[in-house]
Design brief:
Elements: H1 4-13, H2 17-33, H3 35-39, H4 42-51, H5 59-78, H6 85-93, H7 100-114, H8 117-133, H9 136-151, H10 155-170
Helix pairs in contact: 1-2, 2-5, 4-6, 5-7, 6-8, 8-9, 8-10
Length: 187
Amino acid sequence: MFRIDTLIACIRTSTNPQVQNRTLLLLSSLAQIVPDLILNHVMPIFTFMGASVLRQDDEYSAHVIEQTIKFVIPILANASRFDTAPIISAFIVNFDFIPKHRRLSLFKALLEALGSNRDIAITLFLLAEKSVQANEKSRSVIREFGIDLANSFALSTRLMVCAYSVFLTLDNRRIPRDSYNDPPRYI
């Protein structure tokens, strides 16, 4: 039996980035072996990442983040009972602390791991909301990033995201989980 809570406590209490990174890699590996155990601890993992690892600007930390996203997020995306918006929100809240040159690849990796056009739409909505609340300089940076992020996807994906955006704007209900990658019925 694995004590995931002990590993979470380890990364929360340690001030050593190497210990934090190694523990995140261990959690990423465990996600492949015991996905259900990891699923119950996803939010603490990503809350921690936002508070510390996302702010680090070294290649190894970037690798750790990508590995964590690559192996933990698909488990989350496949769990029908889990809402992905809080994970996306954790990355949006920490947007200003993510090194500028790593933002696009990080968000792209996150959204590709989630695998849903709905999640791209939610991300763009949250970025738009953040830009409205930001000062003029930050607003411009966030808007440019949103455009770059949208343009990093294929045209067909962007069109589907536009359809979801219209749907979300017109109808504030949740999109059913089984139709994430299908266009809304009345668009």
